Amino acid sequence: MKPSVSIVIPCYNQAHYLVYALKSILAQTFSDWEAIIVDDGSTDDTARVASQFSDPRFRYIYQENRGLSGARNTGIRAAVSETIALLDSDDVWESIFLEKTINWLGQHPEAAGVYCGYHYIDSQGQLVGRPSIRVVPPDSFRRVLIYNGNWLVPCAVVFRKRLAEEVGLFDESMRAVEDTDLWIRLSVSHPFVGLPEALVRYRRHSANMTKNPKHMVTAARQLTEKLYGLTEGDAGSWSTPKKLAYAGLFAYAARFYLAYGDAKESACYFQQLVEISLHTATSMPTWRCLVRAHLPVEYQNDPLASPDWTLAQRDIEGLLGELASRAISSDTLQRHYTRIKGGAFLALAEEAVRAREQRRAFNWMWRAAASCPTLLLARPYWGTISRSILGVKAVDRFVSWGK
Question: What is the set of domains in the chain, with CATH numbers?
């Protein structure tokens, strides 16, 4: 009989982590599986580690290096089951991962796949940060994925092989965000359904591709161009979906480069953001992401993780300085620079309020108003003041009640 799920484990020079991934498969409470280890041209001990697992449900395939997408595609094509689960060699599953996700997929026959949340772990396997658990309505999945970015990790997704084959599997020309690309193509005609539990341990270490901003931004741009075409012609004539997609890309790139201390490159993308979506460029969520940009990704959504204030102020002032120099040759940036500057300091103040750093908060609120006096008439400014006086939880509860 065919197994209920085929697990695809691509591995390239990650033998030191592979053993933990394979042990987490053996620890599953759901036992009707096969696991395909795809050695993508490794030069380390991957083959030896794989050979230590004699369980007949494991299969080992060696191929010349083709990249992550190529390794995953090899595993999917070799899979016997019509259900695919991905497990990268440096990640691990909680013991109930397969049981819960396979059951959830069975309850949603209309879905292309299901996903769950995840914990972050460090190179030693220790939990870090807060778990990422986010579920969006199935009919909003594709829109959120395109305009707001991918919040999923591949090892937290289980999907149907037939549907993936119909849309062409992973795009092997892409060297990053290839998972985002596949989920977008799959969700054109079939929903994805979320499971609000953290059932995966996603490892963060120095070899993660997400540590390379140029690589990640280039790949994200490639995906946006694939969906909506090049940034040609007057942006005012673009369709709304194209504007939203590029606004998301430019905001992502500005934050990513700032996270690695490159204010000049960050300003380049932020200027492009201003040109196509002033609303996004001046919004509190955008600037709060920039204020927190230097925090490791595992702490980005942790409300208890405060920025390094010296570093955050240095980065924001560095970005504002680069934008000021660009405003000389950009009419749009010049017209709205004071509003942008005020928003930047207000975001610093908001973060300080949430960290109960009142002195810092009032200092930055003063700088925000001095930079852009019209902020004194804006709701975000008075929202920050209210939270500083009444407390964050009280004001946020009132706002939620008002909605």
Answer: 5-203 (3.90.550.10), 213-402 (no CATH)
